């Protein structure tokens, strides 16, 4: 960390963060909902230090006090947005539950290798104080508050609003957005204070997506295709940018890490596209499609064409590379984005997926002319499921990958993964010219957990990472 008299959590800049220490442990939510095991979800602590005797092992499990929460994405009580505040410490992990609407606050400061439950925010607080439910993305703010995006209202209808938590007591303060200004759908968000802007994305109506995915629901308008531009200071919604069919189901949104940047990218799941959003000379915001993964014509699948289904994206801290996962096709891609408008594919590896050569699906026509990949076996374990959540080391040299998306969709598309458990893998990254290589010596097998196979989702480092830290 750069020297700083009385500095707070995180790093002074993204480039300083790249010089931070190598990750030694990671936290992952592990989900039992939709599996055959009626057990609480839990937070797993995994040893990722190659020098450790417990390398690639789960070294601690913190079960939640309730069943069927569907832990999903994780956030922090403080990050690099509070770097200048010496009173702040990154010592609480925020765990929103996608289905139960509970929010767990976890103490990771007292003993980082053995986290403990600090507080539970019950769903009724979200319902009555904010008329919101299904919390998703959590970001800490420079003010010390915590902001969490939500997918819907308490009845399961789509509603893209935001709740604020007090950063000390973790009590629900109320809504961030003004009354009547919530978006039709919610999912992810990213803010950029130097340009007084926040951008949010859309998934779909919780009561529609909760049991599984039906393509007909897209045509019925139950899934989103817009991103929303908000005034960060006044909390007013300024613009809605409709991405149309080419931007169906825009999920993860990422600004460039440089806090002076006026652009970023959003991955659109169903259309398998990446859009660049940017500030225009006139001062408003616009979008352009910069990456498109073509559908593959197939036999033996639910539809005659299979989309890639881009489900997670991230940008390296030096803003040089963009990564994303194609959860149906089964590949991880790395793009050089030094030319922001023309990303260039420089790395690609298949890690399971629906197109494996010994599976039931056959490619009839592929515009990319990629041969069906062989099954992926690591340390004797076949990878069931497909690459989904990704996290990059601070120095950009290691990309971690897990395979679970959301338990009900896992069960629909990859029942073998629900049966066998998900896995965590690691790719070595060529940070000079680009390129990805699977580390054959790294595997965390969540099929061997003490209470039965489990679904592991998002990855967080104790010291922050490139998908949770925001610089102001």
Automatic annotation (TrEMBL):
GO biological process, one term: protein transport
Role summary: Catalyzes the oxidation of methanethiol, an organosulfur compound known to be produced in substantial amounts by gut bacteria. Selenium-binding protein which may be involved in the sensing of reactive xenobiotics in the cytoplasm. May be involved in intra-Golgi protein transport.
GO molecular function annotation: methanethiol oxidase activity; selenium binding
Enzyme Commission identifier(s): 1.8.3.4
Protein name, as recorded: Methanethiol oxidase
Family the UniProt entry places it in: Belongs to the selenium-binding protein family.
Topology within the bilayer: Peripheral membrane protein
Compartment annotation: Nucleus; Cytoplasm, Cytosol; Membrane
Enzyme class, UniProt record, top EC level: oxidoreductase
Catalytic activity: methanethiol + O2 + H2O = hydrogen sulfide + formaldehyde + H2O2 + H(+)
PANTHER family: METHANETHIOL OXIDASE
């Amino acid at each position: 960390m750069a020297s700083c008299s009385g500095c707070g959590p995180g790093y002074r800049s993204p480039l300083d963060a790249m010089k931070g220490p190598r990750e030694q442990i990671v936290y992952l939510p592990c989900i039992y909902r939709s599996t055959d095991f009626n057990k609480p979800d839990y937070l797993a602590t995994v040893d990722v230090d190659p020098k450790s005797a417990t390398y690639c092992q789960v070294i601690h499990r913190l079960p939640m006090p309730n069943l069927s929460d569907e832990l999903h994405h994780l956030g922090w009580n403080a990050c690099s947005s509070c770097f200048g505040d010496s009173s702040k410490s990154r010592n609480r992990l925020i765990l929103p539950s996608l289905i139960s609407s509970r929010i767990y606050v976890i103490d990771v400061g007292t003993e980082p290798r053995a986290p403990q439950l600090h507080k539970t925010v019950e769903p009724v607080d979200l319902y009555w104080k904010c008329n919101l439910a299904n919390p998703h993305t959590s970001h800490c703010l420079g003010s010390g508050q915590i902001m969490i995006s939500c997918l819907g209202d308490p009845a399961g209808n789509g509603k893209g609003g935001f709740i604020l938590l007090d950063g000390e007591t973790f009590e629900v303060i109320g809504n961030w957005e003004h009354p009547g200004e919530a978006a039709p759908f919610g999912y992810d968000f990213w803010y950029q204070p130097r340009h007084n802007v926040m951008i949010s994305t859309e998934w779909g109506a919780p009561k529609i997506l909760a049991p599984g995915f039906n393509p007909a629901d897209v045509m019925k308008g139950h899934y989103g295709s817009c991103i929303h531009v908000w005034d960060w200071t006044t909390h007013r919604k300024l613009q809605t940018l409709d991405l149309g069919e080419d931007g169906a189901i825009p999920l993860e949104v990422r600004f460039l890490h440089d806090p002076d940047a006026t652009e970023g990218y959003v991955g659109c799941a169903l259309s398998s596209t990446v859009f660049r959003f940017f500030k225009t000379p006139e001062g408003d915001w616009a979008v352009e499609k910069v990456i498109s993964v073509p559908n593959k014509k197939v036999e033996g699948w639910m539809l005659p064409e299979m989309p890639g289904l881009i489900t997670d994206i991230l940008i390296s801290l030096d803003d040089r590379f963009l990564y994303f996962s194609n959860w149906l096709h089964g590949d991880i891609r790395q793009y050089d984005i030094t030319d922001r408008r023309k990303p260039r594919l420089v790395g690609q590896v298949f890690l399971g997926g629906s197109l494996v050569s010994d599976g039931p699906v056959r490619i009839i026509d592929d515009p990319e002319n990629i041969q069906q990949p062989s099954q992926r076996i690591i340390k004797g374990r076949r990878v069931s499921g497909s690459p989904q959540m990704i996290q990059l080391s601070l120095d950009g040299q290691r990309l971690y990958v897990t395979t679970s998306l959301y338990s009900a969709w896992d069960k629909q598309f990859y029942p073998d993964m629900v049966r066998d458990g998900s896995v965590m893998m690691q790719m070595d990254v060529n940070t000079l010219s680009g390129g990805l290589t699977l580390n054959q010596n790294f595997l965390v097998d969540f099929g061997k957990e003490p209470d039965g196979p489990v679904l592991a989702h998002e990855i967080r480092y104790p010291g922050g990472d490139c998908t949770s830290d925001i610089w102001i």
